[in-house]
Amino acid sequence: MQDHIVVLTGAGMSAESGLSTFRDNGGLWEEHSVYDVATPEAFARNQELVLRFYNDRRRQLASARPNRAHRLLAELEARYRVTVITQNVDDLHERGGSSEVIHLHGELTKARSCRHPELVYDIGYQDIETGQTCERGAQLRPHIVWFGEEVPMLDKAAEVVRTADHLLIVGTSLQVYPAAGLVYEVDPYVPITLVDPGAPASVARARVIRKGAVDGVADWVASLA
């Protein structure tokens, strides 16, 4: 049976493909406070602004490309079972070739109904407009887990982490809960590696590679040979 590699990725993974993150910009995301564009209250207060913000992010994503770290993780599937659990809302893991990806915080390339959350639509890189509705007449919104909302994929992600033979953490500060709590679901004897160029959060017994995602993942993959 193949070893199961579980990879937990955060904003640092996408940053090396040119996608900015609010945590690297003093609490601003493309000059917007997250409280103006990433909460249910913000959407209720100024729907047009929030939709425009995510439409811009979608256009930015359309021109971004998977980096070498994305591709290296996909290539591991030739030898291992690999599950990527990502806090990122982009589709770079999928475009990089990964076949098993769990999105904790939603997906930018999807829309869902405001009143009927089970109605989710693949929209690719198209805009969502005010007045654009689902088949039951409710306004569409980005399929994103905003601050203050539940993380519906968290239980599934925790189940996956419990089956890991290796846990690789890339590009996340491990400061945002509940996602950060996933590291505590791993079996005590499973090796953990943290790829982070700065001062990482404390992870007991983790091997730390103090490099960015591309170089750090390359080093880790080479160590598996």
From TrEMBL:
The keyword Transferase applies. One of its GO terms (molecular function) is NAD-dependent protein lysine deacetylase activity. Gene3D superfamilies: SIR2/SIRT2 'Small Domain, TPP-binding domain. Keywords: Acyltransferase, NAD, Transferase. Pfam families: SIR2 (PF02146). SUPFAM superfamilies: DHS-like NAD/FAD-binding domain. Its EC number is 2.3.1.286. InterPro entries: DHS-like_NAD/FAD-binding_dom, NAD-dep_sirtuin_deacylases, Sirtuin, Sirtuin_cat_small_dom_sf, Ssirtuin_cat_dom. Signal peptide: none annotated. Residues 1-225 form the Deacetylase sirtuin-type domain. This is protein acetyllysine N-acetyltransferase. It comes from Marinobacter qingdaonensis.
